Amino acid sequence: MKPSRLTLVVAQKIVGYFHRVASPIYTGYVASEIGYSLDQTQLMLEALSKADVVRQLTIEEKKLKQIDPRGNVWVLVEPAHPGKATW
């Protein structure tokens, strides 16, 4: 099934936000940035994860970065690039 144009636009917005922030991001921050619900944002992040664009931090990574291990935190798979950031 081909993704809708809206889905692609939202995915681009999410990825652009990750490039702008260039650090691990909670799902809630992504949701507030793109204006979607937590559930919708979670689904988009999971789709981007399946496409190897973003991934969730492991518990060990969260502990190293002093992030609550219960948090739902995502990071880009490849290094962030300022030229791909969106404002």
Please provide a written account of the structure:
- The chain has 87 residues and is mainly α.
- It has a domain of 51 residues.
- The protein contains four helices and three strands.
- It is globular.
Strand ordering within the main sheet: 1-3-2
The overall average pLDDT, rounded, is 91
Helical amount among residues, as a percent range? 40-55%
**Strand portion:** 5-15%
Number of helix segments? 4
Distance between the termini: 30 Å
Q: Please tally the β strands and state the result.
A: 3
Morphology call: globular
Whole-number radius of gyration?
Answer: 13 Å
**Sheet having the most strands:** 3 strands, antiparallel
Main structural class: mainly alpha
Topology:
Blueprint lengths: L4 H17 L3 E2 H8 L3 H13 L3 E3 L2 H6 L8 E4 L11
Antiparallel strand pairs: 1-3, 2-3
Features:
10% strand, 4 helices, globular, 87 residues, three-stranded antiparallel sheet, mainly alpha
Quick description:
With 87 residues, the chain is mainly alpha-helical. It is 51% helix and 10% strand.
